[in-house]
Amino acid sequence: xxxxxxxxxxxxxxxxxxxxxxxxxxxxxxxxxxxxxxxxxxxxxxxxxxxxxxxxxxxxxxxxxxxxxxxxxxxxxxxxxxxxxxxxxxxxxxxxxxxxxxxxxxxxxxxxxxxxxxxxxxxxxxxxxxxxxxxxxxxxxxxxxxxxxxxxxxxxxxxxxxxxxxxxxxxxxxxxxxxxxxxxxxxxxxxxxxxxxxxxxxxxxxxxxxxxxxxxxxxxxxxxxxxxxxxxxxxxxxxxxxxxxxxxxxxxxxxxxxxxxxxxxxxxxxxxxxxxxxxxxxxxxxxxxxxxxxxxxxxxxxxxxxxxxxxxxxxxxxxxxxxxxxxxxxxxxxxxxxxxxxxxxxxxxxxxxxxxxxxxxxxxxxxxxxxxxxxxxxxxxxxxxxxxxxxxxxxxxxxxxxxxxxxxxxxxxxxxxxxxxxxxxxxxxxxxxxxxxxxxxxxxxxxxxxxxxxxxxxxxxxxxxxxxxxxxxxxxxxxxxxxxxxxxxxxxxxxxxxxxxxxxxxxxxxxxxxxxxxxxxxxxxxxxxxxxxxxxxxxxxxxxxxxxxxxxxxxxxxxxxxxxxxxxxxxxxxxxxxxxxxxxxxxxxxxxxxxxxxxxx
Length: 601
Description:
Elements: H1 2-19, H2 23-48, H3 52-89, H4 98-107, H5 109-137, H6 156-162, H7 165-197, H8 216-234, H9 237-255, H10 259-263, H11 266-271, H12 273-285, H13 292-301, H14 321-359, H15 366-390, H16 395-440, H17 451-471, H18 476-487, H19 494-523, H20 531-574, H21 589-600
GO molecular function, one term: ubiquitin protein ligase activity
Membrane topology: Multi-pass membrane protein
EC number: 2.3.2.27
């Protein structure tokens, strides 16, 4: 009876795990825990009976299981918790409910879990990057409770091995509390305030599928992979953010008399030159971007460190210091709340206002409005900073700079039309004819082509092809792309780009599009074939010619390899030796005569 009851309970638990769609994750974690407990018990028994070799082997196995379990929890479970918490706190922003998330999870559990894990991983990684930026501004020793990601003594695997399980559990719980509180402060609370102050502003329109012919998914990939990375890389965003953090720190330091605590004492820095040099070296090591794995582990586990601070710098401690620290934390929370309110409202409001002139009252995906608003805000801030830098130089210099920048903008627009407009459109249309249309449209139906969607897909394909070209061997296209990238926007060479890059690529794409069309529409009907055969040729000639080109390329490559192999075998079998004769570039007659006589001998 007991065995039957245990079997029934096991089946119920197993069915419950399967019904929850977490069978793989729960089974893995439970398996690691049971294996660790078994190894601990066996290790204790081996120590009791004094089996030294078995004890060492069990100890090594326990360390491997422990490290594997911690990696699964930190890189798998923790980002997943952060992703789900971000989604739950932002439900009102998208006019969604927990029931909608439950239905999406039941329809596609694997995709839903992966997307939430990815969002959580990005959130934790950028949190660690922001901590690195704070270390560049604040006095060494302020963030003593956070592990320095660039500390050469920091070894995540070593900490996993030596620290006990209860300390890892404590850090995990503390990390969940800290990250969850930041999400509440910067996402949930601003959404509630926005709904109270601007009731008609939310929710955001983020419908993935619509009746419009333009694919929302392709444009989202375009904005995420092309537009936003270009904004972050070329817009000096990190320098601006660092300047804002420094300005906020100086303001808070003087308001609360914590300038020495936050930024250090300037007089002490002048008197202690050696320590300042050490601190500069420490800040220089902090300029690197964190690796995803180490940054995640450090930001996740090292919220509370027991060791002393690294690179500590003394400071002046004012009266009522604990009260001032509490006020500093409150001031920081208010600043983060206001910054989140601005980031959630200003770009979207600006993008909606600008898009309304083009689309009217139609609803647009908020990703497009947010990207448009971000670019407008970036251009405005950039123009203001440039004008402020030019104003001390006088009006004449400003006019010369305006003329120079106007000419550069015109050249950039021409290059953008060719490289970001014509080439992606032709590439997307060719991809549509070669891959998409033969696979998705039957022969008895007519394929429809949308230039906007083809252009969006062409931009992604052009970016992928450019990345593969830069990683590949040296040839003319790689040389030209590297030269254009090295020149930059300020030294842009319009004639070189058109003659060496745009014209050859456009010619190849046009020939790839036109030659199959001329063959299918102009030559095949002259052969007297049926309409079905003409339709078949028109629909399948593009993938057929692609297959022919690929096979010809492979054939020529193999022929060249066989020629090299033949020359290598022939040289190894018949070539006796190799010797340089008359290698001197401009030698005199006596030396040449002597060398010739020696050769004859």
